[in-house]
């Protein structure tokens, strides 16, 4: 520090030092005023003022430095190099402009500090570059301790100077800011000069490249003129600004006093009214003379005054600079109005508070509208909160605006979780995490669920989008776009409805008793499996089976036992299934099973598992029940390519399995389909055969064995089909019995045979076969009697032939009907005796008029001793019971001899004559049905 004071005292011309300080103070004050002009015009014309301020500050600092350098007395003549001198000027101007720009643009403390640092570094750079411009016959070195100190001096005072410049108002703060900036420049200069160490040496620079002190003085004078010119510009600009401000204030005063819609008036710091405009007089009812000087609390309600609200409002406005509020206010006449007011602190040029400016407006109508709106809003909120739908409103950027209570309940979220402004993606993630915490594991599943919800809301097509987020959460989401681009979305929890629909769909596709798939479900499954098998070039097997004699179980044990057996069977079938297999209950005791086949052995194993379900008896409260089934198998695509055709073919195979005694499994063959089609055609054509007169009767003669005399004929029906030709009774009679057409055919045969026989000799009988279905017909006896009356045939000449199997189905009823027929005088013959049931109990229960031995025994008599024994036994039985015996199938004289030997009464067969038409009557009108 000693060297610093010695340098200042002994090595400077104090007159030039004072001049430098005066120039510096003047220039910095000018720069401060220019900076404030740039601040007040920001951002419109701030660049121009910043440029002038930077130029002024740069020239000021440069001039200050070189005036002081002219006063520097190093003990020898000095000169100045031109280029470093010019560079120092440019550096000073550029650095100050950059610092001002940084501080003004951002108006933050940190940026003001950065601007001060830029200006300080610029001043320091200018100084030391200017030192390099000195031309001395000495070598210049620097003491780095003073250099560092000079850098600190150049920066530290500039930060408060920059703050006062940009934040302050009035000349006092301007002088403070300029003084601090001048201090930084002066301290930098003298500390920097004190850092110089001179060592004599020869000057190596040409003299024509050195600026003399006189030239340098001229340059400095020019710089000083620039500074003075800028000062004049500032003074003129400030004067114009003051005049503009005064004019603006005058105009504002006139405007404020002339405004009638707003009450505008000034208050002192303690709240007393200082002035009054026309709007205040109109709004509050007081004249200016009546109110000026009175406290502002006269406008407040007694309640406000009791609570101290006027003083509180003034305090808050003083602390924060401005206070805005609403409340009820009183007029001079005692009426009230809802006021919206603004109280703003007013300060003088030095920033000291001098009072308040208050603006008040009557907002009573707006208040009433707001109250009505609030009431409507409350009603709307009540309606929204009582909706069964969850609702949320999103703005144009898809951020949450509002929601109803149901929405929060639906997602198990609190009001804090649904803060307005929450974007849709975060809303979806947060909602799903609250409702489905186990599913929201932070992985891909969570992202997929959240994306599903966002897409459903953003779809905005006014059509429901079903979001299946979980088994316990299924929502119907409807979204609509609002005119402003926002969205309103509603959420309906349809989980229970979906469960009900799924349950209904399940019931529609499953059997109610067994819970097995039904026919429709099995058909859909087969269709899908067939399509998959076709794509993969694989086979699918369909197995049809029904339960043998299940009806008898229900009849003997009751429906409840039958249901239990059916459910146990279904459980066994389900347990026997492997993956990809299905068993369905089609109807009653009809079942079907399906399986895709990877190999032939798969089918064998599948059938074996199904058959194993019938090996064990089924539990019953009485006795164990044994069930069996016959299986028909069809394989796609060889046997059929559609579910319906495949099932039909499997049914055909199952029917063949029933008819077989060799096993309980049959595979579909193409011939079955042809036979079934033929059978269906026969069934369809039987309905019209009588109408088309396609039936006719043949008569086979019956003779006494002993004498050979003709005793009568057996009527045999024949069918001349229009397309198939002659159809055997063995073919169409079973079909007629299945379809029920046997009733009409039987009536036609009976009526035609009786009509034909009526024209025969009186001693000849006619035999007509009676089926089991006809025997069970309630009006059979009445119909037979009516036919005898209509034809005129005596009852003794009619013989009705029945098989014992027709009696077995309902023996008591059958025997009762036969007794009624026999009471008419009609003879009853047991047909095909020796086959089927043929029990002696039947012969004992009803006195038949004739026994007919089946033709199979007589045809085998030449090769089978057992057949001869049966013929002998039946003939002997007939003699002992007094019942005539007739043998069928007589074709040779040997057959006649055998029958005569065994004592048979009558015989019929090709030996006596072929079945033939007998033109013994005129055609009668058909009277059938």
Question: What structural keywords apply?
Answer:
Beta-Lactamase; 27 strands; alpha+beta; 929 residues; disordered C terminus; elongated
Structure write-up:
The protein is an alpha+beta fold and 929 residues long. The chain folds into five domains: 2-238, no CATH class; 260-368, PAS domain (Beta-Lactamase, 2-Layer Sandwich); 387-500, 2-Layer Sandwich (Beta-Lactamase), CATH 3.30.450.20; 510-668, Reverse transcriptase/Diguanylate cyclase domain (Alpha-Beta Plaits, 2-Layer Sandwich); 680-908, TIM Barrel, CATH 3.20.20. It is built from 34 helices and 27 strands. It has an eight-stranded mixed barrel with strand order 19-20-22-23-24-25-26-27. A five-stranded antiparallel beta sheet has the order 10-9-13-12-11, with helices on both faces. The chain has a five-stranded mixed beta sheet with strand order 15-16-14-17-18, sandwiched between helices. α34 links the parallel β26 (885-888) and β27 (906-908). The longest helix has 46 residues, at 213-258.
- Which range does the strand content fall in? 15-25%
Sheet with the most strands: spatial strand order: 19-20-22-23-24-25-26-27
* Main sheet specs: 8 strands, mixed, barrel
Span of the ends, CA to CA: 148 Å
User: Helical proportion?
Assistant: 40-55%
Helical/strand content category: alpha+beta
- Provide the domain count: 5
What's the average pLDDT?
A: 81
The poorly predicted ranges are: 920-929
Shape verdict: elongated
Please provide the count of β strands.
Answer: 27
Number of alpha- plus pi-helical segments: 34
Report Rg.
63 Å
């Amino acid at each position: 520090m000693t060297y610093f004071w010695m340098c200042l005292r002994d090595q400077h011309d104090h007159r030039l030092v004072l001049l430098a300080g005066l120039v510096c103070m003047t220039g910095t004050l000018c720069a401060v005023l220019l900076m404030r002009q740039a601040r007040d015009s920001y951002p419109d014309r701030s660049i121009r003022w910043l440029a002038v301020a930077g130029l002024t500050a740069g020239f000021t600092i440069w001039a200050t430095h070189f005036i002081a350098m002219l006063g520097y007395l190093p003990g020898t003549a000095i000169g100045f190099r031109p280029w470093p001198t010019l560079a120092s000027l440019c550096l000073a101007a550029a650095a100050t402009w950059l610092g001002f720009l940084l501080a003004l643009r951002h108006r933050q403390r940190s940026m003001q500090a950065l601007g001060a640092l830029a200006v300080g570094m610029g001043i320091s750079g200018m100084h030391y570059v200017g030192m390099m411009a000195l031309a001395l016959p000495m070598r210049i070195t620097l003491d780095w301790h003073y250099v560092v100190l000079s850098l600190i001096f150049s920066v530290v005072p500039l930060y408060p100077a920059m703050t006062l410049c940009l934040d302050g108002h009035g000349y006092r703060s301007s002088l403070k800011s300029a003084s601090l900036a001048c201090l930084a420049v002066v301290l930098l200069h003298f500390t920097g000069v004190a850092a110089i160490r001179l060592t004599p040496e020869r000057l190596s620079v040409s003299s024509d490249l050195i600026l003399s002190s006189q030239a340098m003085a001229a340059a400095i004078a020019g710089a000083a003129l620039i500074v003075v010119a800028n000062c004049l510009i500032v003074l003129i600009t400030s004067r114009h600004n003051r005049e503009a401000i005064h004019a603006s204030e005058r105009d504002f005063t006139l405007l404020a006093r002339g405004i009638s819609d707003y009450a505008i008036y000034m208050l002192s710091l303690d709240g007393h009214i200082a002035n009054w405009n026309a709007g205040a007089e109109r709004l509050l009812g007081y004249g200016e003379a009546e109110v000026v000087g009175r406290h502002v609390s006269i406008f407040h309600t007694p309640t406000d005054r009791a609570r101290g609200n006027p003083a509180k409002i003034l305090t808050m406005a003083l602390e924060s600079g401005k206070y805005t509020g609403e409340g009820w206010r009183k007029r001079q006449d005692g009426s009230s109005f809802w006021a919206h007011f603004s109280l703003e602190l007013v300060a003088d040029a030095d920033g000291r508070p001098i009072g308040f400016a208050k603006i008040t407006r009557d907002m009573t109508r707006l208040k009433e509208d707001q109250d009505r709106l609030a009431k409507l809003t409350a009603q709307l909120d009540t309606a929204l909160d009582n909706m069964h739908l969850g609702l949320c409103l999103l703005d144009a950027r898809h951020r949450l605006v509002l929601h109803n209570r149901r929405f929060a309940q639906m997602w198990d979220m609190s009001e804090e979780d649904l803060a307005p402004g929450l974007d849709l993606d975060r809303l979806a993630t947060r909602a799903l995490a609250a409702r489905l915490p186990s599913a929201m594991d932070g992985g891909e599943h969570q992202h997929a669920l959240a994306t599903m919800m966002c897409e459903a809301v953003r779809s905005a097509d006014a059509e429901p989008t079903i979001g299946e987020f979980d088994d316990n959460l299924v929502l119907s989401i409807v979204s609509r776009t609002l005119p402003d681009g926002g969205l309103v979305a509603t959420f309906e929890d349809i989980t229970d409805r979906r469960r009900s629909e799924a349950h209904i769909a399940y019931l529609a596709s499953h059997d109610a008793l067994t819970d097995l798939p039904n026919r429709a479900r099995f058909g859909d499954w087969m269709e899908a499996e067939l399509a998959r098998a076709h794509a993969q070039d694989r086979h699918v097997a369909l197995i049809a089976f029904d339960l043998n004699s299940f009806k008898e179980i229900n009849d003997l044990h009751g429906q409840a036992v039958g249901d239990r057996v059916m459910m146990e069977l279904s459980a066994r079938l389900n347990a026997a299934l492997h993956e990809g297999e299905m068993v369905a209950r089609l109807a009653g005791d009809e079942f079907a099973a399906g399986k895709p086949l990877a190999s032939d052995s798969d089918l064998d194993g599948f059938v074996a598992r199904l058959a194993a379900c019938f090996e064990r008896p089924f539990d019953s409260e009485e006795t164990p029940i044994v069930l069996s089934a016959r299986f028909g198998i069809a394989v796609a695509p060889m046997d059929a390519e559609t579910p319906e055709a495949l099932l039909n073919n499997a049914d055909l195979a199952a029917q063949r399995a029933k008819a077989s005694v060799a096993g309980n499994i049959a595979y579909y063959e193409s011939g079955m389909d042809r036979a079934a089609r033929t059978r269906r055609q026969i069934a369809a054509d039987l309905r019209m055969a009588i109408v088309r007169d396609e039936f006719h009767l043949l008569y086979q003669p019956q003779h006494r064995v002993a004498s050979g005399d003709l005793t009568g004929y057996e009527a045999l029906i024949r069918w001349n089909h229009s397309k198939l030709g002659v159809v055997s009774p063995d073919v169409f009679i079973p079909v007629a019995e299945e379809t029920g057409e046997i009733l009409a055919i039987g009536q036609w045969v009976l009526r035609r045979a009786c009509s034909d026989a009526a024209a025969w000799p009186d001693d000849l009988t006619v035999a007509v076969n009676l089926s089991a279905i006809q025997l069970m017909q309630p009006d059979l006896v009445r119909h037979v009697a009516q036919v005898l009356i209509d034809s005129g045939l005596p009852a003794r000449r009619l013989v009705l032939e029945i098989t014992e199997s027709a009696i077995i189905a309902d023996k008591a009823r059958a025997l009762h009907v036969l007794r009624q027929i026999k009471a008419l005088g009609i003879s009853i013959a047991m047909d095909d005796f020796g086959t089927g049931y043929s029990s002696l109990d039947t012969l004992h229960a009803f006195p038949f008029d004739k026994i007919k031995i089946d033709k199979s025994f007589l045809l085998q008599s030449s090769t089978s001793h057992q057949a001869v024994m049966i013929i002998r036994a039946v003939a002997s039985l007939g003699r002992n019971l007094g019942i005539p015996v007739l043998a069928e199938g007589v074709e040779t004289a040997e057959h006649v001899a055998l029958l005569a030997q065994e004592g048979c009464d009558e015989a019929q067969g090709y030996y006596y004559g072929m079945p033939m038409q007998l033109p013994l009557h005129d055609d009668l009108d058909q009277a059938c049905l």
